[in-house]
Amino acid sequence: xVDSRKVSRRQFVTSAMSVAAISSLPAQPGLAGISRxxxxxxxxxxxxxALTDSPGxxxxxxxxxxxxxxxxxxxxxVRAVTIPSGFWAGRREINVTKSIPTMHDLLExxxxxxxxxxxxxxxxxxxxxxxxSDSDIxxxxxxxxxxxxxxxRPELRAMTRKMIDExxxxxxxxxxxxxxxxxxxSSDRMTPETQSTGHELYCIGHMLQGAIAYYRGTGDRTLxxxxxxxxxxFLIPNYGAAPKKPIVSGHPExxxxxxxxxxxxxxxxxxxxxxxxLHGDERAKFPERRTIYMFSGTPFTARTKLQGxxxxxxxxxxxxxxxxxxxxxxxxxxTLTALWQDLSQRQMYISGGVGARAEGEAxxxxxxxxxxxxxxxxxxxxxxxxxxxxxxxxxxxxxxADIIERALYNGINSGMSLEGTLYCYRNPLAFxxxxxxxxxxxxxDTTCCxxxxxxxxxxxxxxxxxxxxxxxxxxxxxxxxxxxxxxNGTGLRVTQKTNYPWDGRVDLTVAPAQPSDFTFYLRIxxxxxxxxxxxxxxxxxxxxxxxxxxxxxxxxxGDVIRLRMEMPPQVIQANPRxxxxxxxxxxQRGPLVYCLEELDQPQGVSLINVxxxxxxxxxxxxxxxxxxxxxxxxxxxxxxxxAYENDASANVLYSGYSGIQTKSRRLPLTFIPYYAxxxxxxxxxxxxxxxxKA
Amino acid sequence: xVDSRKVSRRQFVTSAMSVAAISSLPAQPGLAGISRxxxxxxxxxxxxxALTDSPGxxxxxxxxxxxxxxxxxxxxxVRAVTIPSGFWAGRREINVTKSIPTMHDLLExxxxxxxxxxxxxxxxxxxxxxxxSDSDIxxxxxxxxxxxxxxxRPELRAMTRKMIDExxxxxxxxxxxxxxxxxxxSSDRMTPETQSTGHELYCIGHMLQGAIAYYRGTGDRTLxxxxxxxxxxFLIPNYGAAPKKPIVSGHPExxxxxxxxxxxxxxxxxxxxxxxxLHGDERAKFPERRTIYMFSGTPFTARTKLQGxxxxxxxxxxxxxxxxxxxxxxxxxxTLTALWQDLSQRQMYISGGVGARAEGEAxxxxxxxxxxxxxxxxxxxxxxxxxxxxxxxxxxxxxxADIIERALYNGINSGMSLEGTLYCYRNPLAFxxxxxxxxxxxxxDTTCCxxxxxxxxxxxxxxxxxxxxxxxxxxxxxxxxxxxxxxNGTGLRVTQKTNYPWDGRVDLTVAPAQPSDFTFYLRIxxxxxxxxxxxxxxxxxxxxxxxxxxxxxxxxxGDVIRLRMEMPPQVIQANPRxxxxxxxxxxQRGPLVYCLEELDQPQGVSLINVxxxxxxxxxxxxxxxxxxxxxxxxxxxxxxxxAYENDASANVLYSGYSGIQTKSRRLPLTFIPYYAxxxxxxxxxxxxxxxxKA
Lengths: 694, 694
Prior knowledge:
ten-stranded antiparallel β-sheet, alpha+beta
C-alpha cells in the first residue's frame, strides 16, 4: 500500500486533481443505472454457488489447508484457541474494544462508506480517499470476521452486516464492484494502466479475505457471494490467458485471496487464475521498473531476490506459497526458498520489519538496513508474518515460526500504540524527534496499516497451533486454551500457563479425549539456548533452539509438558555487511527486541553520545526488572553505559581521528521493549547502540 | 543528468518505444521546411548582436566576472596559466590527445552529429539517443573551447568548427534549435511537461557554455550567435513572466549559461530571465516530488537543504550564485550559505562527490552517505566544484577552495581512467566486483559525464588563480606559470615549482612588471596543519589551515614564496551520524583520499575481513613510498592491519555478539590514491576501513 504522504503515491495513483474534477460534475447518468440493477434484492435472487468446503466454516482456520495436498501442517480454527490472560489477552481486548470501533468511526468520518452509499443515491458526496479506499472497509471487515471467530459480538456483527449490505448493493450485474471506477472513470476499468496502479484487484482481494473471515465467523455468505460473483461472473469469463483479456495484479493480494476462495468453493478455475497471474504473462506490457515495484507482471518463478514495494513483494510471496501448497510446483518452491534466504540473510530488520526505503516503500539492496531511515511499514511486517505462516505450513520448519514470532512481537506490535488508537505506518529502528515526524497517528489517508494490524491481532489464536498427520505443533506461547482435535478426529485440549514473553517458563497440560499415540511438536525458539523440556517431570532430550522437539508418546489427559527457557538479555550483532549496524549491538530478551528511549536515560544525556559498556561478560551485567506501572507493564533492562563527552553531534562532517579512547563517563542505560516505544512524549530512540571500547 | 541504465530515466524521459515509433515513420514534411529556412547562408545574413564584453574574449576567464558587482574575486583567463609538467600536465595531455579525440569518434559513431545532419537532409537516419543528446555535442565543444584557450590545436579547431556549422544549420528562423523536438514531436516543444523532462533548455544551456568557451578560445562567434538568437529571438520574446508563456528549467543549466551570456552581451534581459527561472514562478504547475527532483520550478530562495537530483541541484546552485554575483540579492546569499552548510556538514563524501542515492541520482537525507551504494556521479562532483568556484568568487573564503581541491583530486579525478578512455558514471567509495558492475566504461548512452570530465580538465588552468582589487589569490598548486596582470594593470608572472600533490613543498616565484605593492593571498589547504610560509627565506606568520594567508608587501621580480606543508598520512573519522562510516576511518595524504584495493593486499585476504591496526599513534606508522611504475606514478601508503579469521562474510544476518576481540592476524595493508582505483583488473575496493580494536 502506498502512503499518501509519500512521493510514490503521486506517481502511480490518479491524482487528487482528478478527484476534485469528478466531484464538481453533475449527477452521473451511469450511477442510477448501477443502483437499479444491483439492488440487494436483485442480488439475492441470483442462485448462490454451492460451496464444497470441508470442514465447515466453523472449523476453518486462517487458511483452510485441510485439503491442500502439499501442506505438511494444517491450520486450526481461530475459535479453537482462547487467550484468557497474559500478554496478548490485553492487546487483543484493546483491539476489540478500542481499535476496531474507533477505526469504524474514522472510516465513516473519512467517507469510506459514503463512497458506497453515493452509488445507490444515498448521498451526493464525491468519492473520497485514494483509489484503494474500498480496501480499508474490507480489511476492517476481515478484522471483525476474525473477532467473531473468537466469539460473537452482536453489536459489532450487526454493524458489519449493515456495512456488507451497503457494499453488495453497489455490485453491478456484471459482478464488477468498485466505488472508484464508476461514472466517467468506468472506461478506465481494468485497462493495463489501471490494473497496474488502480488497485481494483487489490480491493477485491481484500474483499474476498474480509468475506471469508466474516463467513468463518458467522456462516453469513452475503459478502462471500458477492466476491464469488466478481470472480466467477466478471473476472474468469473475461480475463486470463488469450483469447481472454490480459490481467496483472499490480498490487499482489488477489492471488492469495483467489486461492483461499478456491479452498472454499473447490472451483479450480480460481486457483488457475491465481496461477496465471503469478506466472506474469503480461510481463511484456510493463517496463522493468514497474514490474520490480509491483512484484508482479513478470513470472514469479523468475525472481531471484526481494525488491520493489515491500508489501507487494510479501503478498506476492504469500500467494505464490499458497499456489505451491495446492500444486506442489517445484519451480515455485525453488523461488520461494531463494527469496526466503534473501529475506532472512540479507533484507530483514531485527524487528522482523522489512522494506528499508521510504522511496517506493521498497526493499533496498542486500544488507541495506538503515535504522533511522528504515521504512519497515507495519503492513510489510504483517506480510512477512503471513508469508512465513504459509512457508511453515509447507515445510514445518521452525525457522519460519522464529520469523513469525520476531515480526509479531516487535515490528508488528510496534505498529499499534498501547492505547490501541494510534498507529505507525513506518517502524524505524532509530528516531530523532527534532525532524517533527509524528510517528504514531490516529488516521492516515492511506489507512492500510491500522485495519491490517487489527485483523492480525484478531486472528492471532489461529497462529498458535497446527496439526499434522502425526500430531500437533505448538508455535506460540501465551496463557491459552486449545480445544480442537487431532487429524484422526481424537479430541484434544491443551492448556498453556505462562508469563511469556516476560518469563520463559511454559507449562502445557495436554488432554486428549482418550489416551492417544501422537507426536507433540514443541517449538524451541531460535533464541532459547539451553531450553529444558520435560513431560510429567521426566526430562525430554533433543531440545534445540530453532527446532521443534518432537515428543512422541501415548498422551493421556493431564500430561504436563514443562518448557523451561532462560531469558538472559542477549547482545546481538549484525552481519558486518550491514554497515548501518557496524560497531553497534542490539539487545534482545526472549522474543523481544529492546531499545533505548532518551527520556529513560539520565537527564541531559543525548542518545547520540551514548555507548554500551559491555566489559568482558556482556549479558551478566544486565539487570532485568518487571515494572508493572510502566508502558502497560514491561520488563526493563538496565546496563552500564558511557556518555562520550566530546559531543558527537557536532557539525563537523570529517575530522582527524581522535582515537578509540575518547573521554567518557559512566552512566546507567535503561532499555525498554521496542514495541512500546513512542508511547510517551516525543524523544529519541535507537535499537542499535554503539559498543564502548575501553 | 540521468543514467540510461537507471529507473529514473524511464520515468522522465520519452521512452525508447516512442523513439522506435518515430524511426519507422516516413519522411516528415516538417523537416524539409526547417532545412530550407535555416540554411547557414540564411543565418549568416542575420545581423549579429553587438557584444559589449570587456575585457575581450582572449582575456575572459572561466567566468567573466570583470564587471560583476558582487564578485570579490575575479577569474583569470585559462590561457594565462600554463602547466608544463607535474601531476596535472600528464592528465591534461591525455585529455587532449586521447580523451577528447576518442570521445569525438564515439559521438559520431553513436549518431550524435547525424541527429543534426538528418535535419538538413544529409541522411535519413532516425534520431538517436536520449532526449538530451544534443548536449553531448555541446559539452564536447566546450571541452575543445577550453583546450583552444590554452593554445591553438588547428586540427581540433577545424573539426569543431565543422561541427558548429552543422549545428547552426539546423537552427530554425524562430531561433529554436533542438534535434529531438522536430517533425511530429514539434508540437511538444516547451510544453510544461517537455520543459520539465525534455531537456530543451538544458541542451541550450550547454550550447551556450560550449559557444562561450569556443568564442573565448578562438574569437569565433558562429555558435555564440546561434545561442544569442535562441535566447533573444525565441526565448525572451515568448517566455517568462505573464503575459508571456511560463518557463521552468527542468534540469537547471540554462540559468548559469544565461548569466554568462549576459556577461558577454550586457543584455540585462538575459540576466532577468535567469532570475525569473530561479524564482520558480511555475511552482504551482508541478507536484512537489517533481520540483524536489528538478531542483527548479519552486523559488530557489525557499530551499533549505540539498535534495533531489544531485547534478540538477549543483547546477541550480551555480546559477543562483551567478545571479547573486550580479545582483547581490541577500535572499539568494542566505539560501546559498544554508545550502553550502548542508553540503559541507551533512551531504558530501570525503571524495567531494555528492548524491548518495542511485534512485533518482539524488541527494539522500542528512548524513546518508553509504559507500558501496554511493552514486557520486562524476557530473555531480564537477557541479560541486563549479558551485564552490562561484561561492569562492563571492566571498573569497578558502573553505570553498578546500572543497574544489577535494572534489577535483578525488571524486572528479576518479571519473576518468588513467588511460583517458574509460569513464565512471558512478564513483562509489566501496566496491565489490562480484556484482558484475563494470565501473569504468568507454561509452554511456547518457554520456554526460565523459565530456563533462573533459571540459573540466581542459579548463583547469582557469581555477589556479583569481585577482581581487588588492592583489592576487592562488588556489591550486602544480608546476605552472601565470602570465597575467593585477587589476590595476600591472603585469604579473608567477612561477610555481612543486611536486604537489605528492610533496607539500611549493616555491612560487613572483615577478611583477615593476615593483608593486599588493597582497598575495596564499592558500593554506584545510589539511595542512603546521604549514610554513616564507618570502625570500623570511618567515611569514599567520598561516592557518583552511585560510588564505595574506602577504602584503612591495613585490619585486624574483621574490620567492616558499610554502612548506608536511604531508603525513592523516586518519580521518566521519561524524558519528554517518552510520555507514561508524567504526571506520579513511586515510588522506595531502589533498588525496586513499583507498584499499584487494589486489594490493596479501593473497587470499578479503577486504571485508580487514581492519586497520592503528595502535596508539596512528599516522607515525604509515610508510609512504613513491612508486613511479604503479598507476602512472603514485605515492603508496603502507600500514599494519589485521585480518579477522572469523569470516565476516558469513551468511548469518544476526548473531550473538562475539565480543570486541575476535581472532585476527597481522598483515600489511597497502593504500593507493582513490582516484586511481579500478585501473587494473576487477577487485574489491574501500575508502573507509574498520579500526582494529586491540
